[in-house]
Amino acid sequence: QVQLVESGGGLVQPGGSLRLSCVASGSSFRINVMGWYRQAPGKERELVATVISGGSTNYAGSVKGRFTISRDNYENTVFLQMNSLKPEDTAVYYCYANIGYLPSRDYWGQGTQVTVSS
Fold it and tell me: Can you give the pLDDT at residue 53?
């Protein structure tokens, strides 16, 4: 059974930094894409950033230049370094992974709360 376990959320002041981590376990199949989505109260879940197995990355416009996604393929781990945090970054952040080949499947972590407030 595939599990995604996140860590690193918390409370930070505006302008501060946090680093999220997510470890995928329970699958012997290739992890195609890993990434992060977030959901703020009353809003839809939205893409934050993704990274494919080859290393190419994709970012939401609102976080580009402030957040950096990286991946350790050997450890099946994805990281999200968040700098210059703003109150509007407050949300539950969910780890995401697409695993397998024909078919591939999407998996989600349980979420970690990030609160940016003074």
Answer: 86
